[in-house]
Amino acid sequence: MHMADALLSPPVGGLMLAAGVAAIGVSVKKIGSGGEDDRLDEKNIPMMGVMGAFVFAGQMINFTIPGTGSSGHIGGGMLLAAILGPFPAIITLASVLLIQCLFFADGGLLAYGCNVINMAVIPCLLAFPFIYKPIVAKGLNKKTITLAAVLSVVIGLQLGAFGVVLETLVSGITELPFGTFVLLMQPIHLAIGLVEGIVTAAVLCFVHSARPELLESAVSGGEIAGVKGGVRIRTVVVVFAVLSALVAGGLSILASSNPDGLEWAMEKTAGTAELEREGPVFQAAADTVEKTAFLPDYALKNGEGSGGETALAGIVGSVITVVVAGGAGLLIHTIHTLRKKKAAV
Question: In the CATH hierarchy, which top-level class contains the domain 5-336?
Answer without folding.
Answer: mainly alpha
